[in-house]
């Protein structure tokens, strides 16, 4: 019998995004995803010139990105524009939460690499 206050961890699981469960390519970018338990983790690489409204909108078939994003910026710079016109720029080291109803684009000449921990990543750039 465990001592009081001892917490037992039932399982430790890892998966490499370099060996993704699923990869989705779209113009000027790619998203690699793994599922660990009930969590989907996505790493996306957006090339200079990428813009959601140009490159993913035709796949999503919505006027704006309707995915909730919660994640971390590894490299590059991306600007996000909310439905109300507010713009926020994400840079390396930033954590972020982006509500549904937005556009986004890469700023500058460096690819932007983001890691997203939202359950909704299962729907990102998924053909309808």
Short description:
The chain is mostly beta strands. It has two helices and nine strands, in the order βββααββββββ. The radius of gyration is 17 Å and the shape is globular.
Task: Give your account of this protein's structure.
This protein has 128 residues and is mainly β. It has a single domain, classed as Jelly Rolls (Sandwich). It is 6% helix and 40% strand. The protein is built from 2 helices and 9 strands. It has helices spanning 52-55, 57-60; strands spanning 22-26, 29-36, 39-46, 69-75, 78-82, 87-90, 95-98, 102-106, 112-116. The strands form 2 sheets. A 6-stranded antiparallel beta sheet has the order 1-2-3-9-4-7, with no helix packed on it. It has a 3-stranded antiparallel beta sheet with strand order 6-5-8, with no helix packed on it. A hairpin with a 4-residue loop joins β5 and β6 (87-90). The mean pLDDT is 89.
Topology (elements, then pairings):
Elements: E1 22-26, E2 29-36, E3 39-46, H1 52-55, H2 57-60, E4 69-75, E5 78-82, E6 87-90, E7 95-98, E8 102-106, E9 112-116
Antiparallel strand pairs: 1-2, 2-3, 3-9, 4-7, 4-9, 5-6, 5-8
